[in-house]
Each structure stands twice: as structure tokens, then as C-alpha cells.
Amino acid sequence: MKQVILNSYPQGEPQVSDFAVVEVAMPVVAEGEVLLETLWLSLDPLIRFALDPVTITGRAHVEPGEVIYGGAVARVVESRNSDFTVGDVVEGRTGWTEYAAVDPARVPLRKIDATRAPISTAVGVMGMPGQTAHACMIGIGRVKAGETVVISAAGGMVGSTAAQIGKILGARVVGIAGGADKCAALLELGLDACVNYKADDFAQQLAAACPEGIDVYVDNVGGAVTLTVLPLLKYGARMPVCGYIAYYGVGMEGPGPDHLPGFMRTIMSKGLEVRGFHGQMVGGQQALEDIAGWIRSGQLQHPEAVVDGIENAPQAFVGIFGNNPYIGKLLVRVAD
Ligand code: NAP
């Protein structure tokens, strides 16, 4: 069977050469464990945290030579655990491997009801990213009808779901994404406006898209995008800090200049409410109930971009941090 292992710690943005695809023997299943056949791999930015020599955030840590950490949907093909039977479909952080022998007491596994939604959504809209999008807009963002909400990385899984939830709540939703094609696709999803942060006149376009200022800024990115948003925030604006992908891989200090003094001044002088959060915990089960309802009523779409074959996972993962054309959830189909 195939696995993807860490070849070397990425320096900054990950490169394909940081990964290696290897063939290894099938694992042996111990008492209490289950043998899982991976069906879908979830490619999430958070995997990058596990690939640093020092743990800056998150609990997972991968050493060179070890299997890459990450979420997956898998099928139980052998069970030596009375809580699981052959044929069960589960979701858990089981890593980039075609098969895994897993102790559910060590790696939590959630059983998936395949009749409720396509099983791939268990790592997308009906899983952690969906719960996070719900938290951005409801639990943390407290978005109200008529407010202007700006969302960075709006084409990503969290951003594209949060944006649609914003529309369901009656807000005016402005997305920020990298490229005219992405922005066009986001307008088709129902956003009121979308601004390409790679355009030379990004700041002017964003200001024009938010003539009355911004009530809520859902930040997935940080960096230059956020510095452009800050002057447009209204007094008392809420800023759910969902992620900061522009800084993943720069360590704790980054290359400078230090924008922290300016940011602190803006927080104080504008009375900003800046809050980081763990989306899965804030969104909880209620998020999944709400999202299932919105999917059923046709108010929420969940586009997926699918890459075939575990050996193509590194290339697809690297694309998250550079140019990629997709909207929504990025998945690797490992088996049918
Ligand atoms: P995703 O679907 O992989 O989308 C990420 C997108 O970020 C990329 O497609 C890219 O889109 C954009 N991006 C990458 N590098 C960028 C940069 N330097 N500057 C600006 N944009 C950049 O990711 P996701 O699952 O939606 O996650 C989005 C963010 O939320 C990440 O920061 C992630 O770590 C965070 N997150 C947080 C939680 C939580 O519990 N707090 C949970 C899940 C995710 P463009 O083509 O538009 O550049």
C-alpha cells in the first residue's frame, strides 16, 4: 500500500519535494484496533502546522519519515474493536495512507451516516470546516441582517460556506479571493461583491465595494490582505480571526516590518472586537444541524474539487498556498 511521508520540514510555503510517496507493507491490526481503508483525504491548511520542527499551534507533529497528518473519510475493513463493524464509514485524523490500523481510543473516529449526506462532506461542509464557517458567522461573528461582512480567502472551504451563511442571515457579503475567475464563481454562489486581492487597485476596489464600511471581517488570511481591510472597519466592528494562512510557515516573528503596534492602535481606537476561536468547538452539533437544513432547502451549496490518487496529494496540498483555481473543499479520492 502507499503512504505519503514527510521528506523534510518545509521552509516557508510547502514544496512537493518536502513529501515522498512510499510503498509499505499492510499494517497488522492489534486487539482494540480497526483496519481502515482511506476513501477521501481532506487537504486542510492546518496540516501545515504539523510540519514544523517546533510546535507553534495545534497538537499534531510529524517528523521526517512519518506519515503526513490529516483528516480522512475511511471504511472499516477489519475490526478488533466491538464498537466498530466491517463496513462502517468513519471520519478521523488518520493521515495520508491508503490503509491504517487505528486505536479509536487514541485517534477519535466519528461514524458517518452515509444516507444523510455524501460521505466526503464529513470532512467538509458537514464536518469541521462547516462548523468553523458557522462559528465565523453566528457563534463569533454574530452577523445581523443588513450588516456588511467581508471574508478573506472567500473561495476556500470555510470562506465559501461562511459567505453563503452570511447571505442566509441577510447580510451584504463581500468576498476577497485571488483571481477574477474565483471572484466570478463566488458571485454565482450569491455573494454581493468579490474583490481580487492580487489586483493592483485592490484597496480602491475593496473601498468601493464597502461604501458604508465593514461591520464584520472574517479573517482567514492575515498579512497584506488584512492590512488593507483594517482602515475600512467601522467603530466596534467584530473580527473573528479564523486563520492566518499568509503567516503559516513564517514562525512566531515573521520577516517584518512589525505591524503589531499599528494593529494594536487600530484595535483600541476603533473599539474592535478581535477574537480567535476553535471553529469545531464553537459550531458544535448545532452547526451541522443548521447546515444540513440549509443544504436540504437549497440555500447552501458545497462545491468540491477532487484530485485522484494519494500520490497526487502533495501537489494538491502545495497548491493551497499558491495559485489554485477551485472553490470550496479540496479532496483527494483515494478509493471508491
Ligand atoms: P482552503 O479551502 O484550503 O482555502 C485556503 C485559501 O486561502 C486558498 O485557496 C487561497 O485562496 C487562500 N490563500 C492561501 N495563501 C494565501 C495568502 N498568502 N494570502 C491570501 N490568501 C491566501 O482553506 P479553509 O479550510 O477554507 O481554511 C481557511 C482558513 O481558516 C485557514 O487559515 C485555516 O487554517 C483556517 N481554519 C481555522 C479553523 C478554526 O477552527 N479556527 C478551522 C478550519 C480552518 P486564493 O486563491 O483566494 O488566494
How much of the polypeptide forms β-strand, as a percent range? 15-25%
Give the number of DSSP strands: 15
Instruction: Kindly report the average pLDDT value.
Output: 96
Overall geometric form: globular
Q: Can you walk me through this structure?
A:
With 336 residues, the protein is an alpha/beta fold. 25% of the residues lie in helices and 24% in strands. The strands form three sheets. Strands 3, 4, 5, 6, 7, 14 and 15 form a seven-stranded mixed beta sheet that branches. The chain has a six-stranded parallel beta sheet with strand order 10-9-8-11-12-13, sandwiched between helices. The chain binds NADP nicotinamide-adenine-dinucleotide phosphate. NADP nicotinamide-adenine-dinucleotide phosphate binds next to helix 1, helix 2, helix 5 and helix 7.
